[in-house]
Amino acid sequence: MMPKVVLLGRPNVGKSTLFNRLIRSNRAITHDRPGVTRDRMEGVVRSRFGRDFTIIDTGGITLDHHQAVAEGPAGIRGFEADILRQAEAALKDADVICMVVDGKDGLMPFDEHLAAYLRRCDKPILLVVNKVDGAEKEELLLAEFHGLGFPLIACSAEHGHNLRALEEEIRDLLPEDDELEDEEEDDGKEELEEDRDKPGIRRRKVTDHLRLCLLGRPNAGKSSMTNAFIGEDRMIVSDQAGTTRDSVDVTVEKNGKTYTFVDTAGVRRRSRITDTVERFSVNSSLKSTTKADVTFLLLDATEGLTTQDKRLIELLDERKTPFLIIVNKIDLIPAKARTELLKNLQEELSFCYHVPLVPTSARTGEGLNKLIPLAERIYAECGTRVSTGLLNRAMEETLTRHQAPVVRRVRPKFFYLTQAESEPPTFVCFVNDADRVADSYARYLERSLRRIFGIRHAPMRLHLRSAHAKREKK
């Protein structure tokens, strides 16, 4: 466990910009508008020579002189208590507190109230005076902050001024590290294991750390689902659409394994997005699916399959993203209507028949125990490697069972099948003329290979290639 450092401050003092600078990645959404950050977000500050530590970004805190929640700017109005609760949870595990203030604005009442609140914490506090763009301005801009009584340092997250010194100051405040464990280096090799039920096939071994992304429209229940998985109110949940803005990683250990759930902002149709913050949020959500091992796409059972849901499913299917579909809020559907609902959804989603459909309820916990085992199966299938012998037998079995139909008076002739990639499983079928293979027969080939190779739910590619094309080019 690395030591933890939490960034606290009133809205719009530059905590998220500082967070991005320290972790050297633009993970947190930054904007001039106050109140963009609501949920807490964690990242790692790494150094070649110094000590690594976890940094935690939090939303803007607004307290009155009684250290009670006060009304904040429009961006966080209505979420002030939730943001404070998130900050308090971060404070419990923090080893060092960095209180961030705005050097250009000077000392504000919210700063003084937060400082009084933090004095009760028995933890080292460093006052970070942000937005100080150079050493020549430090003496002037830092003067009034000395009255808070905390050790302080000036920096500029936007321009990078004094950030290395800030990292060193933070490391000096960290508790003594008695035992430094050497990290095991990843050799980059994929570990495969034999499939007991299907000789000749090796699957990707499920790792001890799986990354799972939750994607869907606003108010589909992604944050509620994340909280249900980890068993605590880690994410802010509200009936108001667009509560979650950043893509937030939440890590939990279950049964000796580590799972990182990535809660993302709701994805609306692009034509309806006029706000720049929402545009950043949507881009971050879609980008998170490319970094996850498996994506959970959430549908709202009370609204059925909307046009936007179908677009997201088509996007994931086109990109060959490993995913499963969660029909959330199933507890709100009468028992008699559930079967009909699921049947209709399966018919509408017949274009990606391999993707599992799981009815769940984040509120009651119904169906949640099926999701992680299913995600692990999909992850393993994504690394399927088939032996040459089985490839040949599969081709022979498939063609014997059902011959290709005649197209333009000629029946396509198939030569052999080979595997080009394993992530996702990609097979190339050589035929005398690929243009003569009907689409319906291509779908039959894919279904047959899925059945023979045991690839039930993972994405799979099947390319038909004309064998004579190479000879013509020569």
What does this structure look like?
The protein has about 475 residues and is of the alpha/beta class. The protein has three domains: about 170 residues, Rossmann fold (3-Layer(aba) Sandwich), CATH 3.40.50.300; about 190 residues, P-loop containing nucleotide triphosphate hydrolases (Rossmann fold, 3-Layer(aba) Sandwich); about 90 residues, 2-Layer Sandwich (GMP Synthetase, Chain A, domain 3). It is about 30% helix and about 20% strand. The protein is built from 13 helices and 18 strands. A hairpin with a 2-residue loop joins strand 16 and strand 17. It is elongated. The termini are far apart.
Largest sheet at a glance?
Answer: 6 strands, mixed
**What is the CATH class name of the largest domain?**
Alpha Beta
Helical content (DSSP H or I, runs of 4+) = 25-40%
First-last Cα distance: 60 Å
Radius of gyration: 27 Å
DSSP strand count: 18
Superfamily (CATH H level) name of the largest domain: P-loop containing nucleotide triphosphate hydrolases
Low-confidence stretches: 179-189, 469-474
In the CATH classification, which architecture of the largest domain applies?
3-Layer(aba) Sandwich
**Class from secondary-structure proportions:** alpha/beta
Strand content: 15-25%
